[in-house]
Amino acid sequence: MRTAPSSSSVADARTATGRAWELRRMPAPLRAAAFLALMLLAVLSGMGGSYALWSDQQSLEGGTVTTGTAALDAQWRDEGGTQMENLVPGQSGSRSAVLRNEGDTPLEISASAESSAMRVGAIAGACTSPSDAAGLDDDPVPLPSPSSGGTLVLASQESAEVCVTFTAGPELTPGQTTTGTILFEGSQV
Question: Which residues are within 8 A (CB) of 129 and not within 5 positions of it... i.e. 6 or more apart?
Fold first, then answer.
């Protein structure tokens, strides 16, 4: 004799069958998205890297780097230096200096000056037209070079003559002595 299935086992069978049938009824795009998500998860979880069976490496000795030097020398051309006497306010005088790049890298030359009672100027070249000299103050300015039409640049071991002008300021009184400082700077090009 057969016994009838209990009501709870019939309900369980219907529920399990219904769920399986419901997955098959899922729309195709949703099934495709679920499949792609599972595949992506599988691929990402297996990414430990893939390595070739053979590999090799080679090192190369590092090179040696030696830095260059920047060394600028400045000397007055004549023994008198910059001593000028009997200038009245507005009157100018000039002296020649020689700049030499003692380093091994090209240098672009700029100049600045500190003076309380005179104006100072400088230009590359001989003192034939000192009125063309660039006026100098506390801020360095590139030294003009009429021969190149630009800024004075000295190659390694190269020298250049520079004309330095001094103009007595209106604040000078008779018999007063004043001094100034000129700074030539060389910057690597």
Answer: 123
With H, G, I as helix, E, B as strand and everything else as coil, classify residue 55. Answer: coil
Using DSSP's 3-state secondary structure scheme, residue 93 falls into strand
Q: What is the pLDDT of residue 99?
A: 96
Closest CA to 186 of 71, 74, 67, 104: 71
As beta bridge partners, residue 5 has none
What domains does the chain contain, in order, with CATH numbers?
7-44 (no CATH), 72-188 (2.60.40)
Number of neighbouring beta carbons within 10 Å of residue 122: 27
Better-scored residue on pLDDT, 43 or 70 = 70
CA 41/CA 30 separation, integer angstroms: 17
